[in-house]
Specification:
With 223 residues, this protein is α/β, with parallel strands linked by helices. It has 8 helices and 11 strands. Strands 2-1-3-4-5 form a 5-stranded parallel beta sheet, sandwiched between helices. A 4-stranded antiparallel beta sheet has the order 6-7-8-9, with helices on one face. The longest helix is centred in the last third of the chain and has 18 residues. The two termini are 32 Å apart. The model has no long low-confidence stretch (mean pLDDT 87).
């Protein structure tokens, strides 16, 4: 794994970095909040281990910046502050777990394994492309702050297009996705649903990201 450690305590930093190296993990160690946040913006990590009491920018502020930037990398807070209030503040800010110093390295590894498994197993509840956000839990569609009311069929079409944004989907593939794998009906029926979907998107957002590729099918343009 590739791990970002943001910790200003030199003894802890050296010990943890060495332990990760012995575990054959790559660990980048930064000693202040700003440097840690800069690393998170420029590199992809499997997990971030973040101390709360940091110079320049506090760990809590770094965590807020990370989440506000859209970065969903799992974060473990590593701190000597063990009060309930500090734990709640960290978890509300977007932390995935919380380890209080002093700690045993095997415990830290176990917690990393656990949150990485959760991140892999838990699918994202939203899809985003073409200026649209689909909430798969509530079945809501947003263009900015405007909600677009879609029928179940229109929602399913849009979901498939967004999951395959940038790729041309044939009409028959859309029909089979909506109804049955051995669809034998006319594919013209999909044009009716696509037109209705486009009209609703244009009415709410001014544009429709769905384009027709003549003779091939439909594609959702993500940009």
């Amino acid at each position: 794994m590739k791990i970002l450690l943001v910790e200003d305590d030199l003894a802890i930093g050296k010990t943890v970095k060495k332990a990760f190296a012995e575990n054959l993990d790559e660990c980048i160690w930064e000693k202040d909040g700003q440097a840690g946040f800069d690393q998170s913006k420029t590199h992809q990590f499997d997990v971030i281990i973040l101390d709360l009491m940091l110079p320049v920018i506090s760990g809590l502020e770094v965590l807020k910046f990370i989440r506000h930037s859209g970065d969903k990398t799992p974060v473990i807070l590593l701190t000597a502050l063990g009060s309930v209030e500090e734990k709640v503040a960290g978890l509300k800010a977007g932390a995935d777990d919380y380890v209080v110093k002093p700690f045993a390295f095997p415990e830290l590894l176990a917690r990393i394994d656990a949150i990485c498994r959760r991140a892999i197993l838990k699918p994202s509840p939203t899809l985003e492309a073409g200026g649209l956000v689909l909430d798969l839990t509530t079945r809501r569609v947003l263009a900015g702050k405007t909600e677009i009311i879609l029928s179940p069929t229109e929602f399913s079409i849009l979901e498939l297009l967004i999951r395959n944004s940038g790729q041309v989907l044939p009409k028959r593939m859309l029909c089979e996705h909506l109804w049955e794998s051995d669809w034998e009906g006319t594919t013209n029926v999909i044009e009716v649903h696509i037109n209705r979907l486009r009209n609703k998107l244009k009415k709410c957002s001014g544009i429709s990201p769905i384009e027709t590729v003549r003779g091939r099918g439909y594609v959702l343009i993500s940009n």
